[in-house]
User: Fold this.
Amino acid sequence: MVKITDVAAKAGVSVQTVSRVLNNRGYISQATREKVHQAIDELNYQPNELARSLHRGKSNLIGLIVPKISHPFFCELAYYLERYAYQKGYKLLLCNSNRDKSKESKYLEMLKKNRVDGIIMGSHVLDVEHYLNLNLPIISLDRILAENIPFVSSDNVKGGKIASQLLIHKHCRKLAYIYGGIGGPPHNALLASGRFQGFKQVIEDNRIEYTTLLLDETDSGMEFNLNKIIGFLKEYPEVDGVFASSDVIAAWVIQACHHLKKAIPEEIKVIGYDDVGLASLVSPRLTTISQPIQKMSELTIELLTKQIDGEEVPLKNYLPVTIIERDTT
Assistant:
């Protein structure tokens, strides 16, 4: 294995000079820089990133923990977070917790051992002490970890209100809210529960009937939940408007309606939440509450890098939502 001493010998300089070139510290003449880089290329020297991070006191690594990367929302979120992190000079370490307590705990320990500069939490199954004891900059996405940990979220309550207002405007008179988790233990701290709060508030103000369906919280798969929705719509045939807590669940509702030969939007109208790519690919195309996923990602990276640099950032960061009306309403 090529060592830094080999590079120094080939370039005819000291080890300290090679180190300063690698870390871009102190004055080094252009001629010396070129000699060192030429030696690095000829020897194919690979610097020890961990050692360099210890020397600099910074790793330029950010940890991201999500509950389920296969979920379209978290898939798109991770894409944009990586893009904006890279633009700021950081690399992203992606951890998929499956909302498993042991797995999430081990990932947090791994990120700490790898001396990441900060962590983005898209999952939350541990007690708050686990996050506070990290002593690292943290930004939470769409959930509250602790009162003093900043979070970024879309305005879930407003999203629920917009959904119910549109369904009522479209003359729906028996509404349903269909929701579920993405695996693992549920938590009241999830800000997504605000979607139902907003939805319910408008419905009760207008004295509209509604019912709810909680889908399975484990990885039972699409077929189980699809059959559960089919059974629900058979039990409540008068339901003419559905608000689903995600676009994935809304897609299951559409499939259930196809199975029951219920015409969309003539007999039943459907609204999702997120506006991931799936929403415009299902048939009929899905009306949905659009979370600004790209802006949420950009703001998350901005806030985290400011924390890393020692700056104070606001704790509560809500971004507005909009409704994208397509063929299901």
